[in-house]
Specification:
Shape: globular
CATH superfamily of the largest domain: Nucleotide-binding domain of ferredoxin-NADP reductase (FNR) module
CATH topology of the largest domain: Rossmann fold
Order of helices and strands: EEHEHEEEHEEHHEHEEEEH
Distance between the termini: 36 Å
Largest sheet: 7 strands, mixed
Number of helices: 7
Radius of gyration: 18 Å
Structural class: alpha/beta
Strand content: 15-25%
CATH architecture of the largest domain: 3-Layer(aba) Sandwich
Length: about 240
């Protein structure tokens, strides 16, 4: 069966798509052993994407959830309509070499200056979080860094924020609680194992709150992007 892998970057002019994945099991090992120039069978993109409505998108990515945030940032790059901030977290070395950002960000903790260089190249501010003690990174969770930033905004700017996130399930739950805390809209991209990828096998269903009550939705076609408040309901 195919493996679902998130798109990280694309180039419409040069005709390439960039993926980031970790060699972990049999499928990703086979993929990693492919040689340049080989052909592989794939299809996509599948499912429903993020929809940005507010002018200050806050993008939060953790671990293997970083690529969708990078891809979303790429779609926002160069637009005068949006002022995004990207927060990325990892408990293993980042898949890029962090460097001090050239973009100053108010409401950030002192010394938190590490960024993803690609974001700086796109003129999009980014900051990094980890509990591994990496230089220039916030020492803690991505949600703690996001909370610090949100608390530093005035009411008007905070009302312009919308949260987007992808990452491990516990992190997404924490992001949903953060959005609830500040009464902000939040969209999450869920990471679920998919078999067919076209909605036929129902192997990737998750419970989602709807107007008709809780229903099982297929991540591959009904998602992977969902309203966080409908997936992670308050206790």
């Amino acid at each position: 069966m195919r493996r679902p892998i998130s798109i990280m970057r694309v180039s419409k002019t040069d005709g390439w798509v960039d993926f980031l994945y970790k060699r972990l099991g049999e499928g990703t090992t086979l993929l990693a052993n492919r040689e340049p120039g080989e052909r592989i069978s794939m299809f996509g993109p599948i499912g429903k994407p993020f929809s940005v409505q507010r002018t200050r998108p806050l993008l939060i990515g953790g671990g293997v959830g970083m690529p969708p945030m990078i891809f979303l940032a790429q779609t926002l790059a160069g637009s005068d309509a949006f002022q995004p901030l990207v927060i990325l977290g990892s408990e293993v070395p980042f898949p890029f070499q962090p460097r001090p950002s050239k973009i100053l960000m108010p409401a950030m903790p002192e010394g938190v200056i590490g960024c993803m260089p690609l974001m700086d190249d796109w003129a999009i501010p980014s900051r990094l979080a980890s509990q591994r003690g990496f230089s220039g990174c916030f020492q803690g969770y991505v949600t703690d860094l996001a909370r610090h930033w949100l608390q530093g905004l005035d009411q008007q700017r905070r009302s312009e924020v919308e949260i987007f996130s992808c990452g491990p399930h516990p992190m997404l739950e924490a992001v949903a609680r953060l959005a609830e805390e500040f009464d902000l809209p939040c969209q999450v991209s869920l990471e679920e194992f998919m078999a067919c990828g076209v909605g036929g096998c129902a192997g990737c269903v998750v419970p989602v709150e709807t107007a008709a009550g809780q229903q099982m939705k297929r991540v591959c076609v009904d998602g992977p992007v969902f309203d966080a408040h409908k997936v992670f309901t308050a206790d």
